Structure formats: C-alpha cells, structure tokens
C-alpha cells in the first residue's frame, strides 16, 4: 500500500512512502495535482479542460477537491436528444463519484470529498454544411 502525506514545512509538496519503494522522497507540486484533476474532470464531464477550475484542499492523509465546470446538455431544438438525456443532477452525481474514484487512483491517496459546482451549460456546436 502506498501512502501519500503532506510534507511538513514545504506547503505544496507531498511525500510518498510504502513497501517496495526505494528510500527517499517523491515530491509532487500542487500545480501538477491541480492540472491532473482538471483534465480528469474535463474527461469525465465531457467538456474542454480550459473551462474547468479545480481547487484541492489537502489534509494529512486525504484531500478534498472542488470542481467548477460547465455541464454538457443536448441542443434544446433536438427533441430526441433531450428525451434521451440523463437528468443533469443524476449525471452530475455519477460524474462526482467517478471523479472521486479516478483521482483516488491517480493521486495514490484518499479523496474524501468532491464538490462539483455546475457553472453553466454547454451544448454541442451545429455543423455547417457548405
């Protein structure tokens, strides 16, 4: 089992230790964790990573993640897609659970909480025929 803990006195660094790992430290800056979380959230939600904002609050053995993102919805004039779409609240809960699981795996530490704030809606662009 690998354990990730806050590295005392450095603030934005973590140290990784566990059985089978060589002696020493592995430091990962908060910026790397933030970018990783932004890309994972964008992938799971289905939006451009540039539109996702992430804040990570670390504790000793866990972290909480706050994600602010627009959420994809079908074009409102596409009645068939609107009928087939999963309700936003249900889709957001699924994304929240999946993001927590993925980040726990990627970071190698428990993610105790994922707060997901939907900042708007994004619809697929219409394709123009020339």
Structure description:
The chain has 130 residues and is an alpha+beta fold. The protein has one domain (29-122): K homology (KH) domain (GMP Synthetase, Chain A, domain 3, 2-Layer Sandwich). Helix content is 32%, strand content 29%. It is built from three helices and five strands, in the order ββαββααβ. It has helices at 30-45, 79-84, 88-107, and strands at residues 3-6, 14-17, 53-58, 62-72, 110-122. A three-stranded mixed beta sheet has the order 3-4-5, covered by helices on one side. It has a two-stranded antiparallel ribbon with strand order 1-2. The model is unreliable at 1-13 (pLDDT under 50).
Secondary structure elements and pairings:
Blueprint lengths: L2 E4 L7 E4 L12 H16 L7 E6 L3 E11 L6 H6 L3 H20 L2 E13 L8
Parallel strand pairs: 4-5
Antiparallel strand pairs: 1-2, 3-4
CATH architecture classification name: 2-Layer Sandwich
**CATH fold call:** GMP Synthetase, Chain A, domain 3
How many structural domains in the coordinates?
Answer: 1
How does the overall form come out from the CA principal axes?
elongated
Top-tier CATH class = Alpha Beta
- Element string (H = helix, E = strand): EEHEEHHE
**C-alpha Rg, in Å?**
18 Å
What average pLDDT do the residues reach? Answer: 83
Count of alpha and pi helical runs: 3
The structure class reads alpha+beta
Low-confidence stretches: 1-13
Distance between the termini: 57 Å
Q: Name the CATH superfamily assignment.
A: K homology (KH) domain
**Fraction in beta strands:** 25-35%
Summarize the structure.
The protein has three helices and five strands; from the N terminus they run ββαββααβ. It has helices spanning 30-45, 79-84, 88-107; strands at residues 3-6, 14-17, 53-58, 62-72, 110-122.
